[in-house]
Write a structure and sequence with these properties.
With 185 residues, the chain is an alpha+beta fold. The radius of gyration is 19 Å and the shape is globular.
Length: 185
Amino acid sequence: MRNLKLILSYDGSEFAGWQVQPDAVTVQGTLASAIGRVTGEKVLPQGSGRTDAGVHALAQVVTFVTESSVPTANFVKALNDILPASVRVLEVEEVAADFHARYSARGKTYRYRIYRGAICPPFLARYVWHYPYPLDERAMARGAVLVEGEHDFTSFAAVDPERGREGMLASNVRRIFSSNWERQA
C-alpha cells in the first residue's frame, strides 16, 4: 500500500463544495472518480479541509491510499487528463503511512477578496466579492487583529462524525497566527 499526497488547485464555482454529497457534483467526488479510473480502485481522497460551495483552493493538500504502482509523475498527468479543467493536480508524492491531509495539517491560509470598483470585471467576478460601497477600512483592520490568538470556534463548527478519531484534535480551540486587511492596487 502507498499513501499519496496531492497538491490540488480548483475553481469551486461549479462544485457543491469539497465533500461528497448525494446528487451533487463535489470536488472530492470528482477526484475520487478520476483516481478510480487511473487505479481501478474505489478510494475516497481526504482533504486538508472542506470547502463550501463556490469556494476555490490554490494548494489544498489531499491524501489517499492505493495499491497502484503508477509512478507519482504519471499520476499528475493521468489525473489532469481526466479531471475537468477547473481542477488541477499540481503535485503528487508518496508520503509516510501515518500522514493524513486533515489530521497532519499544521496551518491553513484563507484569503477573502473584495473588489471595490464600481463595475466588477467579468474575469474577476468568480474570485471576489463585489462591494462598491463605502467601507471603514481602518475599523476592519482594527477588528481583524482581534481574532488572532487562541479561540474556541465551537459555535462555527459542524457536527463531525469522525470526532474522537485517533490523532484528531478533540476540541474546537484553534490558534489564528495572523489576520489582517490590506488594500491592493
